[in-house]
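Components:
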Amino acid sequence: MATAAASVPMPARRDPLAARLVRVAAKGPVNLVLAVLGLLWLVPTIGLFLTSILPQSTLASKGWWQIFSKPSLATFSNYDALIHNHGLLDALKTTAYIAVGNTALVIVIGALAGYAFAWLEFPGRDALFVVVIGLLVVPLQMALIPMFKLYDYAHLFDTVFGIVLFHVAFGLPFAIFLLRNFFVGIPKDILESARIDGASEIWIFLRLILPLGLPAIASLGIFQFLWTWNDLIVALTFGQNTQPITVWIFGQLREFGSSIDVIAPASFISLVIPLAVFFAFQRYFVQGLLAGSVK
Amino acid sequence: MVAAPPPAAEPGKLGRYATGVLFLAPAVAVLGIWLLYPVGYTILRSFFGQTGYLGHWVGVDNYRHLFTTSTLVTAIKNNAIWVGVVPALVTALGLIFAVLTERVRWAVAFKTVVFLPMAISAFATGVTWRIMYQQDPSLGAINALGRAVSDFVSSPGVLPSALPSAANLVATSSGGILLKTPLHPGGVALLGLTGIPPDSVPKSAVQAVRPAPKPGDVVGVVWRDFRPGGGKPGVVEKEELGIPGVVVELRSSTGKVVQRTSTAPNGTFDFSNVEAGTYQAAVSAQTFAKPFGGYAWLGPKLITPSLLVAYIWIWAGFAMVVIGAGLSAMPRDVLEAARTDGATELQVFRRVTVPLLAPVLSVVFITMIINVLKVFDIVLALAPESTQSNASVIALAMWRTAFGGINDFGTGSAIAVFLFLLVIPVLLLNIRRFRREV
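Structure:
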């Protein structure tokens, strides 16, 4: 995106000098406005981090900015305490299981279906795909009550597997939509020649579609990972002792003031991993966003 | 599942159908059990009573509850505010950011910063902003900023809690403290105050001094008329501190303020060159002005606006990135042509950029409507339990009704169906868009 903008040559030399001067002068305020806005966007996250490295005793009377006048207050003792907190460690583990399990399953099931919708013939294909598109916007509230009952019956309640499968179902329409649209763009010749050479559909799927579809699969994977890592409502409904980190922190919120030394660092830990994923795969994230912004 | 192949079918077509079905089977199974079955069940369930697999038939009673139960009505009203405010603001902000970032060199850095919240969970965002929104200006950054502004606009009183110490001093209706004893040039005004906690005495304060009378001047002292053990009211004693920075007024007999001055570190003040006459001295109301106490951002009245701000903070980056992509795909020559023809930047923006971007803007707008209808986590994280009913939205009301203690699955299902009905127009729009593409 940024590269697309940069590659456009600027025909600046044709502009009248006055217009050019005006444009340069106009950039001062723009820079200033954007700098202020950028700062505004950073402050809450910085505030959370600074809160997380202050001892609780100092936070009862003054906000996180006291650290600027007394940097010596900074301590990692809150984090130190959390590292030995079994509740949090278990929650992190549960979160990782849910996020990774869901991401893997959505990619596999979604890619298979996406390929079928893009390149395999079967009756009612387009009608079925329309159903998938319809499912894109179904609020997950529609499934909470029925699945709650079904999970109780099928002993899936309070299991990582149950939570993962719920996420998979609500991730699939988007996954199929995204991958099908990407796979359709793969040149037909490649597939046809493989088929003429007698390759099986499974071989084509594994050796051609998956490698060629990697950018879309990466976008999808990041989305799914973040979506499940950040989920609250599904785990809150279908888990009791199976608590991911969001639910674990939620349990502490009742005593916001007095447990801030737990809440702030735990929240920061919970957002560090998505941030790392985001920075590592920013390009794919943006691609997926652009492809899927109809959801 | 597969119908008999049509007569003209090539050999192997059935096999290919089977492959398609096999590839599709896992997805169909998961979607069937976790999406299609629940949708059907929830719709059916919404016409039945509170408990049981189906319970007893209640007709549309559950839907009636939706518009008669006050907590649910509040949730619907709040969600209407969300829909009315957020999509428009997010789209507008995204557009502004996208257009502005095209003009600076550090666009990538800015975009990253604004886009960051998208990776953070709505839940962690709630916690983050809850810290920002603390009501005590010493704890919450936003109210701290509010206090800084209010201190700047009208400086806060030195002594928010002081009381007069002697009988000849009275509190006036305007909020100041007046010395009733009439004064003449050459007189001394003793303005003793009590009720001042030791830590609110300004740090620069030193031992109070009773000033010597000066001909032609009215002099005096404002001091903390209290020392450990008590002391005599109305008398400047050892260990009693002067109060610096207090604004003192000299008023004529008609009550008009003739002179104004402020006190020295030892509490003394001096009105010089006072004309002959009768005067009164007063400590101005400003001295006792209460400091800014902070807005209750998390209180019942402001909680929804506070939530909207935090939510816009998350999603502005999304709008900026999508609109930015649309912007960079825009034909440059059209813009340049308009500029060469002498259009101002504002005209280019309004007449060329925005109309060309309309499809992208509508995608962002619609996406945000959907997001806002489903908003849930951030309310649970940001709103304290005491204001959650005031902050409630449809998705949260559904969860609280079905799982939050009431456990009314009938009404819960009706709320879910109501939410579903609200997104159906978008569902149809998506399908129509797909049909057009094919």
